[in-house]
Description:
By secondary structure, the protein is an alpha/beta fold. It has four domains: about 60 residues, no CATH class; about 80 residues, Orthogonal Bundle (Arc Repressor Mutant, subunit A), CATH 1.10.10; about 70 residues, no CATH class; about 200 residues, Vaccinia Virus protein VP39 (Rossmann fold, 3-Layer(aba) Sandwich). About 50% of the residues lie in helices and about 10% in strands.
Amino acid sequence: MEDLTRKLVSDVQALSDYIRSTGGVQPSFDRNTPITVVPHDAPLGAQEARERIMDQCLKLLQLATGPSDYMINIQPGYHYIACLQWLCHFNIFRLVPVKGEISYTDLASLAGTTETRLKSVVRMAMTTGLFLEQTPQQISHSATSALFATNEDYHNWAVYATDVSAPVAAGMVEAHKRWPYDKEKIHTAYNVAFNHDLSFFGRLAQNPALHKQFAGYMRAVATNQGTHMKHLVNGLEWGSNPKATIVDVGGSTGHSCIALAQAYPGLNFIVQDLPEVVEGGPKILEGVNDASVSSRIQYQGHNFFETNPVIGADVYLLRMILHDWNFENCVKILGAIVPSMRSKSSIVIMDSVLPAPESVPRSSERIIRVRDLTMIQVFNSQERAVEDWEAILEKVDSTLKISTISQPFGSVLALIKVELAR
Ligand SMILES: C[S@@+](CC[C@H](N)C(=O)[O-])C[C@H]1O[C@@H](n2cnc3c(N)ncnc32)[C@H](O)[C@@H]1O
């Protein structure tokens, strides 16, 4: 613990010095604190110091807790989720004024609940950094709760995590008891949790409201440090062919292409997704309000199990797609692209490459492992190590080879560039 603490002190000093040197604001719970601790384009040293601080604090907490208090330390986890779900459903984030305070009495009456329940939930949530009680019996926003109040996509993320992801995680044991060795995508914890026999995307296709919520969640995830768009934008030399055409396969409403188009003014994009998803794309482009970006992005309804209709694109991008699918389906999805590729074409898979245990900071490893478990629970799929990716490519076409793997710092996703070595 002493060794960890010595390193922690030095990293906190380095991070604070960096923030001071930029005239930035030191992290605090105050509502007016910026929502990111260091900007996404901060020097690597500052970002690494922040990562180590999180890692050291996590390990220190675990060490100081000790084995006999393990359970006590882990129990708040499921209550945090229950409280977050409750706060979303009773609209508490939006009912607390963005500036100023509101009493528990008034807030309970606006939310249609009892003051006792409200207090218990909010005060538990406060231990995670949501809301403040600076004046006794009055609630105000912290920087984090204000984010959920003002950013609809973040709110969607919270609703999604608590209404969908948490019950699905709770269904894992039952699913694996019911289908011990089965890899069917309709025999998952997701099927157990919602008691149906549709695949994840099959259920979304039948329910536009769920689809809209999922697209919002994806947009919010894209702004998070680990899955931030900067890793896509800076992770490859996109500008090496300044006039290239990029096809974003399963590109949702186009947030990846928008980020790339903003950074690379010569590139052109085709965003492919299921028809009901790309339908929402033009509205998102309107929001960007920049003709020099929107004029270079087209939308195309396309089922990625069918041969790709765009012949000879420079890049077929698959960002956070293949981890949703098991080995056989990954082979089918990639196999539907290969016939449309020409010699100049490449495929860029942006997905996790699983690290060996303890080979990366524990604070970031647990986030990658959340993704791995989610894939098992929702799709009977998995996150993959390099050899797993190579095995898929070999099965699709033995001439399909990984040419580079780029793992941007702070990213939970790597960029795996795949080319035809014919
Ligand atoms: C996890 S999201 C990733 C979205 C986006 N690529 C990103 O990086 O945020 C998976 C996407 O695959 C799309 N999808 C699922 N099944 C599909 C299919 N058969 N054909 C095309 N798109 C599909 C979903 O609609 C969703 O937008």
